[in-house]
Amino acid sequence: MFSKILIANRGEIACRIIQTAHRMGIRCVAVYSDADANAHHVAMADEAFHIGPAPSSESYLRGEKIIEIAKQSGAQAVHPGYGFLSENTGFAEACEANNLVFIGPPSSAIAAMGSKSAAKAIMEKAGVPLVPGYHGDDQSPETLRKEAEKCGFPLLLKAVAGGGGKGMRVVEHMGEFDEALAAAKREAKNAFGNPDMLIERYLTQPRHVEIQVFCDQSGNGVYLAERDCSVQRRHQKVLEEAPAPGLSEETRKAMGDAAVKAAQAINYVGAGTVEFLYDVDGSFFFMEMNTRLQVEHPVTEMVTGQDLVEWQLKVAWGEPLPLEQSQVKTRGHALEARIYAEDPDQDFLPATGNLRYLSTPDESAHVRVDTGVIEGDEISIHYDPMIAKLIVWDETRDQAINRMVQALEHYRIAGVKTNIRFLHALADSQPFREADLTTGFIDTHRDLLFPKSKLDTHKALVLAAGFVLEERKSTESVSTDPWSPFGRRNSWRLNSEYAQPLQLQVGDEIHELKILEKDDRYQVFVNDSVYSLTAKLDDDYLQAVVNGHRISIHGNLHNDQLVLFYEGDTFNCTVYRENYVSEDMAPEGGLNAPMNGAIVAVQAKVGDAVTAGQTLVIMEAMKMEHAIKAPADGVVTEIFFSEGEQVSEGAELIAIEIAKESAEEAG
């Protein structure tokens, strides 16, 4: 077995590989960019080498530099993880040329599946069922339009070299085709260096079901059950599970056999995933093959009891597959939720910030957390915004869902926006519990997945007041006389009863509270309501009784910013000070950057008349494009940034003089 490997990746997957490698007695070499100098994967590795500046193009995508470091460190093999260079044919070839084992398939297999159009041709020849569409070499706009008409609408434009939802657009009718094609080609070129597209019929109620396959160097192949990855946003997976609910054993076997046939058609070696679209009538169609370990591989591990990274290392060393097909068994049900730094309420815009507070559920045989960050780490604009993967297992799907709901309630983050509340609503929703799954699940059930807060505002304010007051007590200086009231930071006054004021800002609204402390309890006045409150704070855990209702919450107070966590929900407020003045970041009609990122395209000039909803600027952040649209009809009066420039969240991008008619309608 290898004695030392280099991991050409970062974050969660690098940590995941190191864990198994260390368990097997293998030393690990990490690489890191400027942004990752203090990253968790660097601390876990036996040694680490600096590889370049923060942008991935100058660090984690520098294949020649990684190979140089691998040789310098004495590593015998390179594990690419997923993303970055994991499906780069040139990098796999370079490893082979430098006598380094690439822990993945042969470069020829990556090349065969790297082009989605070429892959479909190979699968068609191998007898694997395909979705109707076009995957030819002629990429002229005229040919693509003609093939789009032939395929029919709705259709899916997909980058031939793509993955992760990038370079992909759903087109409902021909009127949208040209703009969608231009955007998809541009995004594909930026992400993969290849703007070529394929066209597929867009099935309206499909499920995304994929098969985990494994092949050894002797040509043996097995499949390790299937995963359902139907719940997606922006064509990126949000919640995955194994096994896929509702599939017959006959369908499972047919899919598995087709997946192994697909892998063996390209002389595959190692871990791979064959993805299918599963239609309501039980038919399934080949979509693509990912020639690497998948993000969602833990759910397969949880139901099979196998360590897929260990399998990768053994197969790369030349050992046979650990199991034959008849020996592969599954037990129970597993779910994985991807916890992202993003704002679901703003169309899942990626978020950045510091993980100033991070508390995760306890790990056990039922709960697993795969992550590459710790409290205090920064979520930057340079990499994918995934914070962690939360994986649960139980005997049945219903029990596993209950585990997931509970685990999400115990996952608490402050300092950056996350999708935890959204995931909690999703996992606990009735349609998901009933396995009413399609790739359009989120759009179909949007009202259920963006619920109102479980805490009414008044009760949340009372709890917030209790947290703030108890936090203040915990930081009081110790008086020489422990019974003296003069050392207390409360409302005590000599010979009088005084209600202490407390202002809490929620959004743009400032709430005036008054608190009267009596013995071991408080009276909290909110508007015309009076609440009786007792509270006890132990670190971040508040036990309170509000008007006889006993309630326990967790919270984090930092620089007057308070976040309370309750049953998967959060309540955010600010301890208001007079110097907190809210100012508009841009004049009326201005367009602001919704996040940190780069300007990809400016589609207007000073003096242009624009209409409401027209795309004026396209930004890229965390490998995804975001269109910034005109808020109303008007005329562009000033443009503040050019293509290629980096901008910060809130920066004014374009000034627009709103047309009089639009202003009157708004009024």
From TrEMBL:
<dbReference type="InterPro" id="IPR048429">
    <property type="entry name" value="MCC_alpha_BT"/>
</dbReference>
<comment type="subunit">
    <text>Acetyl-CoA carboxylase is a heterohexamer of biotin carboxyl carrier protein, biotin carboxylase and the two subunits of carboxyl transferase in a 2:2 complex.</text>
</comment>
<dbReference type="InterPro" id="IPR011764">
    <property type="entry name" value="Biotin_carboxylation_dom"/>
</dbReference>
<dbReference type="InterPro" id="IPR011054">
    <property type="entry name" value="Rudment_hybrid_motif"/>
</dbReference>
<dbReference type="GO" id="GO:0005524">
    <property type="term" value="F:ATP binding"/>
</dbReference>
<dbReference type="InterPro" id="IPR001882">
    <property type="entry name" value="Biotin_BS"/>
</dbReference>
<dbReference type="InterPro" id="IPR013815">
    <property type="entry name" value="ATP_grasp_subdomain_1"/>
</dbReference>
<dbReference type="Pfam" id="PF00289">
    <property type="entry name" value="Biotin_carb_N"/>
</dbReference>
<protein>
    <recommendedName>
        <fullName>Biotin carboxylase</fullName>
    </recommendedName>
</protein>
<dbReference type="InterPro" id="IPR016185">
    <property type="entry name" value="PreATP-grasp_dom_sf"/>
</dbReference>
<dbReference type="InterPro" id="IPR011761">
    <property type="entry name" value="ATP-grasp"/>
</dbReference>
<feature type="domain" description="Lipoyl-binding">
    <location>
        <begin position="581"/>
        <end position="657"/>
    </location>
</feature>
<dbReference type="InterPro" id="IPR050856">
    <property type="entry name" value="Biotin_carboxylase_complex"/>
</dbReference>
<dbReference type="Pfam" id="PF02785">
    <property type="entry name" value="Biotin_carb_C"/>
</dbReference>
<keyword id="KW-0809">Transit peptide</keyword>
<keyword id="KW-0436">Ligase</keyword>
<keyword id="KW-0092">Biotin</keyword>
<comment type="pathway">
    <text>Lipid metabolism; malonyl-CoA biosynthesis; malonyl-CoA from acetyl-CoA: step 1/1.</text>
</comment>
<dbReference type="Pfam" id="PF21139">
    <property type="entry name" value="BT_MCC_alpha"/>
</dbReference>
<keyword id="KW-0067">ATP-binding</keyword>
<feature type="domain" description="Biotin carboxylation">
    <location>
        <begin position="1"/>
        <end position="447"/>
    </location>
</feature>
<dbReference type="InterPro" id="IPR011053">
    <property type="entry name" value="Single_hybrid_motif"/>
</dbReference>
<dbReference type="Pfam" id="PF00364">
    <property type="entry name" value="Biotin_lipoyl"/>
</dbReference>
<feature type="domain" description="ATP-grasp">
    <location>
        <begin position="120"/>
        <end position="317"/>
    </location>
</feature>
<dbReference type="Pfam" id="PF02786">
    <property type="entry name" value="CPSase_L_D2"/>
</dbReference>
<dbReference type="InterPro" id="IPR005479">
    <property type="entry name" value="CPAse_ATP-bd"/>
</dbReference>
<dbReference type="InterPro" id="IPR005481">
    <property type="entry name" value="BC-like_N"/>
</dbReference>
<dbReference type="InterPro" id="IPR005482">
    <property type="entry name" value="Biotin_COase_C"/>
</dbReference>
<dbReference type="GO" id="GO:0046872">
    <property type="term" value="F:metal ion binding"/>
</dbReference>
<dbReference type="InterPro" id="IPR000089">
    <property type="entry name" value="Biotin_lipoyl"/>
</dbReference>
<comment type="function">
    <text>This protein is a component of the acetyl coenzyme A carboxylase complex; first, biotin carboxylase catalyzes the carboxylation of the carrier protein and then the transcarboxylase transfers the carboxyl group to form malonyl-CoA.</text>
</comment>
<dbReference type="GO" id="GO:0004075">
    <property type="term" value="F:biotin carboxylase activity"/>
</dbReference>
<keyword id="KW-0547">Nucleotide-binding</keyword>
